[in-house]
Amino acid sequence: MKDKLDKLKKDKHKLDKPKKAEHKLDKPKKAEHKLDKPKKAEHKLNKPKKEEYKLNEDKKNVYRLDKPKKDKHKQPGNQGSIQTASLFLFNQSNVSYTVNVVGIFYNGETIEQATSRFQRDVEIANNIWTINGRSCIRFNITKVIAPGLLGNPDGTPRFAESINPLELQANTGIINQIIEFHKQDITNPNHTIFVVYFKGNAFSNGSIGTGGIQGNSIEFANGNVHGRVIIADRSIKTATNDPTRQFNTLAHEIGHVLFTRLEAGQFTTNDPSPTAPYINAPNKPFDGSPASHNNNIRNTMWPVALEVTNPFMLPIIDEAQCIQARKSPLVIVQNLFMQ
Which residues of the chain have pLDDT under 70? Predict the structure, then answer.
């Protein structure tokens, strides 16, 4: 009996052996895991994303591609390339530079006509005061005033032709009185340029516009000054009174305002551009203040008004002019990230 039981145990042990075979059948699971390996291959396919990132690095080169645009400012007779602060263009993205402007119309226009005229002049100035399509300084209209024609003491209307150079100066004459009277209603006059329009083709000295700072050196140092621009009607018309002809007069005169600075305790409006000063050559118009004007006929500080009817041929400013203008105490500087 014992022999039979031992034999049965041996036979039962043999029957258990297929379990090893079943274990072998489990091995394909390892093969299935191997099939998962292509997932690693799929991960390799994802590597182009790294290439896409490398392509994104080219965005860093966008600024480099912009550099040739600086050469557009080079004109025959320019004095070499313009040297500027390396962070100049980058500051555009996080800092705004603005100046408030007020229009005062003593040329007989209605408030509707005056508003339309001022909006057009300011829009032209904003388009000119850019560098490579980016705003250098933006001019914001805060108020338009249209009191009618300026009157003489006898009640007759006063035109631009009767206003002499002394009255155009910063702190004397009728211009000073007009601005002092109207600035009382302006919230922030120390960051404002007052633009006064007069009826008539030109002033008694032949100019169609003038601009500067109103205030003394101490006030300027403390930031307590405002700008002033005076414009005659010929700034938008030719001798034939063609209202479709437009000029850069306001943009030009604003340049004189923003370039005003103290040097050795004295005011100067010298153009900071490397293409300044203007040179009185026989084939160029006379200019009594060459240091304040530009020798490049494309520059908005060229001493003669430039027509701006063609938007693709606008006058330009260069980076040296923009950098100097931004230093004016009239400019409001705001960090956009801090708002």
Answer: 1-93, 169-172, 236-244, 337-339
Whether residue 203 is contained in a domain is answered as yes
Q: What is the CATH number of the domain that holds 135?
A: 3.40.390.10
**Pairing assessment for the beta strands 226-232 and 192-198 based on DSSP bridges:** parallel
Q: How far apart are CA 254 and CA 115, in angstroms?
A: 18
Domain count, the chain: 1
Contact 330, 258 (CB under 8 A): yes
Cα(136)–Cα(128) distance, rounded to whole angstroms?
9
Instruction: Give per-residue burial for 256-295: e unless 16+ CB within 10 Å, then b.
Output: bbbbbbeeeeeeebbbbbbbbbbeeeeeeeebeebebbbb
Question: Would you state the pLDDT for residue 243?
Answer: 61
pLDDT of residue 337: 62
pTM exceeds cut of 0.85: no
Burial 58-89 (b: 16+ CB within 10 A, else e): eeeeeeeeeeeebeebbeeebeeebeeeeebb
Q: Which of 257, 261, 196 is nearest to 227 (CA)?
A: 257
pLDDT of residue 171: 66
Residue 81 in any domain: the answer is no
Residue 26 is assigned to a structural domain of this protein: no
Closest CA to 278 of 256, 311, 260: 256
In a domain, 303, yes or no: yes
Q: What pLDDT score does 241 carry?
A: 55
Could you list the residue range(s) of the whole structural domain that residue 303 is in?
Answer: 95-338
How many Å apart are CA 178 and CA 174, to the nearest integer? Answer: 6
